[in-house]
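Can't paste images in this forum, so I'm doing it all in text. The chain is below; anyone willing to post the predicted structure tokens underneath?
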Amino acid sequence: MDILAGSSITVLILVAVIIIVVFSGAKMVPQGYNYTVERFGKYRTTLQSGLNIIVPFIDQIGHKVNMMEQVLDVPAQEVITKDNATITADGVTFYQVLSASQAAYEVLGLQNAILTMTMTNIRSVMGSMDLDQLLSNRDEINARLLRVVDAACEPWGVKITRIEIKDINPPNDLVDAMARQMKAEREKRAAILEAEGARQSEIAKAEGVKQSLILEAEGRQQAAMRDAEARERLAEAEAKATVMVSKAIAEGDMGAINYFVANKYVEAFGELAKSPNQKTLILPMEATGMIGSLAGIAEIGKEALKETKKSRSSRIPNTGVSEG
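Text version of the structure:
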């Protein structure tokens, strides 16, 4: 009985040892984490998520590294810009561990190292820019910070996915000065636009006056051309009349001579009557001669009428039918 009892205890002890060994060698790694394995204090391998087997009592878990993307809040700090303006800036950093072994053994205090690197580069990047550039080029600041910090953290097995500057706060007196500057700039632009509008209005008015003068000049030119044409036609008519009178004088027609003299006489008296300073018109004694000349003009008219009738009758063909 004692032998049986002793053998049963031995079996139980062996089973317990086997169970302890199995549980010591089996490691369950949760999703999103990697475990580093150390053998006698030296890194040996990395366990991925799921069930893993290690050598019991020889291998042991070194670091449990979070492989998910994480966010790190960057506290506010003062930054002196290129134009000596003091501002306060803060931000956030997003990073993800790509190599658990590097993150565990290449740097001590990974989050603190990333935070220090980010804050240092914020002062460096923003300190190399003017205040106006900081306020208007935030995307450029984020891109430069991401490029610099990511390159610095690469040996640690870390990928910096994003850096965002949340707030840039200039001092209150500087904000007031910027507000006054913006107001002055807007008033300047308003004055420029108003002056430009007035200039355009004056140009439009001048253009209208110009067009009016051009049209008026063209009208005067057309009127002058018409007057010239009328005078030309009048001169032609007078020339024809003079030729006809000269021909009649050459033929000894006294009626034509009387017509010519009477016509000139009437024109002279007409000009005399048009004078603005003439209040009294005195007719000479030869006015009776002018009246006689008018009688001669009537005779010329009668003769011209007779000749016209004769020329018309000569044009009508003889049909043998007598008139009325």
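The radius of gyration is 62 Å. Helices lie at 2-25, 100-105, 110-127, 131-136, 138-153, 172-250, 254-274, 287-315.
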